[in-house]
Amino acid sequence: MGESLHYAVLFFSTLAEVTTALFNRSQIEHIMRTLGSGVYDYGDTLDEDSINEIKKVTSKAKVNKNFFSKVYIGMIVSAATIISFLKTTVMAFSENNDEFYIKTDGINREMPISCWYPFDHRITYVNVLCHIVQRMAAYFAIAAVIATDILYLCVSEETIAQLKIAGITMRNAVKRAKYVMKSNNDGDMRKCISICLSHSIKHQITILRLIESLRIYYFYLVLVLMSGGAILICLSGFVFTLNSTLNRNEIYDSDWLNYSAEMRYYMLMIVNKSFKPKTLSIGGFAELSMATYANVLSSAYSYFNLLNATK
């Protein structure tokens, strides 16, 4: 009964993922197109220092995404091994072999999920067919849920990296302007600063649109993700929210006193936007953060104590 409920949750999660993908195809397309195009191209407005800082950020994000991908492969292999061998082996040794395998109550206990069939599953070709269908369904459900978790973590990692890159370009706006002046033989410093900052502002707007697509797509789907690796999902949401507010510090650290009145106005708009953290919601019930994870643990511990006290 317990294992059947567990797989029922997995299949429900898979159904939720497919439904969400069907109803939010435009958001998925926007996310994939934005990330696939590199989010934003600064052209020839990046100085050497900014390029080196950006390379460090992107290389760290790439390492983290590769780690998540390896984790995904490891989890799939582990799940397939457990489904294929461990469950039936443990059950076979925990009960009498004759009682385990040769029962006439219609329940096939050799399957990943012990369940009742309205036909004689002891016939060889029927038993093989049941094995194939049920294992394929179990593998697909587990792979789909884990893949959704890993995809969320990778997309969040890339978005966090883009927020850091936008902050770097704003902080180094004067350096970039000097580089543009030297490259284009243009002596107008204010004009070059305006060009550099306009790229940073456009990048920031692109990131905000990407975050909005993420918020819409994962609004209900995060409920499914929380049933899996809750601590990784909450930690990723916490880092995501934290980095969405850091660009105002990067702007303050830049040489904003040399900016024109128009550019200061645009910078002030970005600072005001940064005061409101960008968060992902768990179906509208709570924010995706470590505080939410702590509440989940606290509630779980309270229920455990309640059940333990009623024994």
Automatic annotation (TrEMBL):
Answer whether the UniProt record assigns the keyword 4Fe-4S to this protein.
Answer: no
The keyword Transport belongs to this UniProt entry's keyword annotation: no
Q: Which GO terms describe its molecular function?
A: odorant binding; olfactory receptor activity
| GO cellular component terms given for this protein | plasma membrane
Where are the bilayer-spanning segments?
6-23, 71-93, 136-155, 217-240
**One of the GO BP terms on file:** signal transduction
Q: How does it sit in the membrane?
A: Multi-pass membrane protein
Q: Where in the cell is it found?
A: Cell membrane
Task: Report the main location listed first in the record.
Answer: membrane
InterPro entries reported in the protein's UniProt record = 7tm6_olfct_rcpt
Coiled coil regions in record: none
Q: Which UniProt keywords apply?
A: Cell membrane, Membrane, Olfaction, Receptor, Sensory transduction, Transducer, Transmembrane, Transmembrane helix
The record ties this protein, via PANTHER family, to: ODORANT RECEPTOR, ODORANT RECEPTOR 19A-RELATED
Protein name listed in UniProt: Olfactory receptor
Q: Which organism is it from?
A: Rhynocoris fuscipes
